Amino acid sequence: METNFSRIKETITDMSRFNSEGPGISRFSYSRDDLKARKYLLDICESIGLKVRVDAVGNIFARYEGLQPELEPVVSGSHIDSVKSGGMFDGIVGSVGALECARVMKENNFVPKRPYEVVFYAEEEGSNFQVPVMGSKILTGKLGIEDLKKMKTLDGETAYDTIKKAGFNPDKIPEDVIEKGKIKASLELHIEQSVRLDLEHHTIGIIEGIAGCQWYRVTFKGKQNHAGATPMHLRQDPMCAASECISKIKDMAKETTKTAVATVGFIEAKPNIPNAIPAEVSFTVDIRDISNKSMDDIAIRLKKEAEKAAKNNGCEVTCECGATSNAIEIKDYMKNIMKDEAEKLGLDYIFMPSGAVHDSNYMAEITDVGMIFVPSIDGRSHVPEEKTSFEDIKAGADLLLNTILKLTEE
Ligand code: HGY
Ligand code: MN
Ligand code: MN
Fold first, then answer.
1. Domain 212-325 of CATH type 3.30.457.10
2. How far is the CA of 192 from the centre of ligand 3 (A)?
3. CATH architecture under which domain 5-209+328-408 falls
4. Per the confidence metrics, is the pTM higher than 0.85?
5. Are 347 and 402 in contact (CB under 8 A)?
6. d(CA 83, CA 368)
């Protein structure tokens, strides 16, 4: 059995149409575009006879029944939401690839020993509530109803209300949590989102470890005042404090480990007008590494630098952690299955870490996970220019299919 190139290409291209504002793809979970994309996928699931379950916050599980339905299923999928002005492949390659595996089984009248479930995760990017991998955190019991009542959109709507308004039922969260041991294995096909596979001309990355992440919100509070009339020595300028702190963040990462990264991607001044010293400046810091300890070390340095910058500029500062995801290691047996299947398919593969975070980070709390990467052309992602060849996507989907077939027979 093998996956169908034109069907993969058609489905990924169709998914990119559920997007009302360019440039690139901006399809946040619970938006109109998201609900349309969900309907499109659910129609396909129905057409191939998958039994669909949508959980309390919109994670979709589409089940292809096995010969022994009582056995724990193998699951595979990814997210269907995007960042703002992102690309058409992030998340979608793994979602469509997993769906394609069910389509191939169906058209070959193949029935695996174990059930196989296609999963589409909700709110992986954190675009609505600034909490990444929310859907998988919820389904693994790491976030609950009370958290959703505290998490908010930038307009101040709670996650609980946003999710309810979209037609889901967050009150059902406790009964939808999946316990450890209820899933045999979880697999995710994904674009690399960096340069290595493309630069070194490899088709496949078999993932050895997935970076964790820690998201902080640093807020400096100073004294709003007239931009022209206030002499420099009388200022308590939070923008000066913020810039002093931000200028140190690059070195905090570089000096910690070779794989640590830190990014300030969002900054906001209030009242954000040219002729007033701001009252307040706040920004996000996204810290990643394949070791939890080094992320903690960077966070400690960040807090120290923030306090120093606040003192230098007569400001107050808070440094709040908004979200964390643990770094995880992939088990040897999972890597070896993928290695054997890649070699049988004659695929050019390497072992590599993932710098990006994925729903697999949280699925690893309840089952064994495996990830397969395909190249990102020019290593770009979270941009409209994000691109992966459909030939590589098919190769990744074939490896995913063969890994699923192997695991469902265990
Ligand atoms: O941010 C990430 O690592 C992922 O794309 N959500
Ligand atoms: Mn992403
Ligand atoms: Mn992704």
1. no
2. 9
3. 3-Layer(aba) Sandwich (3.40)
4. yes
5. no
6. 27
